[in-house]
Amino acid sequence: MYKSLVLLMLLFQTILSSAQVKKVKNINYAGNTNEANTLNIFYKNDSIKNKPVLIFIHGGSWSSGKKETYWWLGRNFARKGVVTVIINYPLAPNVQYEKMGDDCALAVKWVQEHIADYAASPEKIFVMGHSAGAHLGELINADPKYFKKAEIKNPIKGVILSDPFGLDMQEYLTTAEKDHFYFDFIRTFTDQPAVWKVASPLDYVNNIKNPHLLFYGSKTYGAIKLQTPRLYEKLKANHVSVEIKEIKGKSHVPMISQMIFGGNQLYKDIVEFIQKTSS
User: Fold this and answer.
1) How many whole angstroms separate alpha carbon 55 and alpha carbon 27?
2) Which of 61, 66, 94, 156 is deepest in the core (most CB within 10 A)?
3) Handedness of CA 206, 105, 224, 262 (dihedral sign)
């Protein structure tokens, strides 16, 4: 009887917490009518103001993925007091990486200008990405041309990268097998090694000043296991605040899908990072 009562109370608490999370869908951040330039916002309906805001950029090899897939990420972070923005951006083959970066920067600009309407602070903007989304998040953070084109200063307080792919696209595409992945990436990054270099966030590491939290899986792709620690070492050498965590037993997709569950350890790590960096 007691066990059943406890389970019922926990279920009620879960339903109540979910009910407190508000969702605003399909806001266009680029002043057009393109679905590729829309975002969803998740926030807790309470009296707390000036919350931190997390902008999530999804992965999908720069050619697939959509914001709707990650509703659970928005809900879980919102329940933990972090206003969360999940964005779409245009994908290959319609555009190449530079246009994706431009539009991600526009999404950040929109958040900076409007997020106060959702009880969050424009001074506490964090960017998180998985896989190709992590590449784009770090690219707009490290290469100043993206925010310059958006006509704002870089407002990103901190960066969270989950299994980032393509931190050094030049290295990867130079050494990669010529398989279907390679030719898929060529659509996004052209067949020009000079472009691969310009598209590599590691090429701009000396511009990075904001704190970083890096995750990678112990069973992920070799390039990620090589380049993520390299980013860590370079940031550390530059005296930038950075933490790195290898997640045991996880391959590439499970590095983000594990966060479907709100009790996943990565939430604790990320929320602590956000709170520490915001203070």
Assistant:
1) 14
2) 156
3) positive
Neighbouring CB atoms inside 10 A of 47's CB total 6
CA angle, residues 270, 274, 279, in degrees to nearest 5 = 155
- Distances from the Cα of 217 to the Cα of 223, 225, 245, angstroms: 12, 8, 9
**pLDDT tens digits along 132-168:** 999 999 999 999 999 999 999 999 999 999 999 999 9
Q: How far apart are CA 211 and CA 50, in angstroms?
A: 20
Per-residue three-class SS string for 15-46: HHHHHHEEEEEEEECCCCCCHHHEEEEEEECC
In a domain? residue 22: no
For residue 27, tell me if it sits in a domain. Answer: no
Give the domain CATH number at 264.
3.40.50.1820
Q: What is the pTM of this model?
A: 0.93
DSSP state of 192: -
Q: Is 208 inside any structural domain? A: yes
Q: Which of 199, 106, 201 is nearest to 155 (CA)?
A: 106
Name the domain count of the chain: 1
Residue 1: is its pLDDT beyond 90? no
Number of other CB atoms surrounding residue 17 within 10 Å: 16
- Domain extent, residue 114, equals 40-278
175 within some domain = yes
Nearest alpha carbon to residue 155 among 109, 202, 201: 109
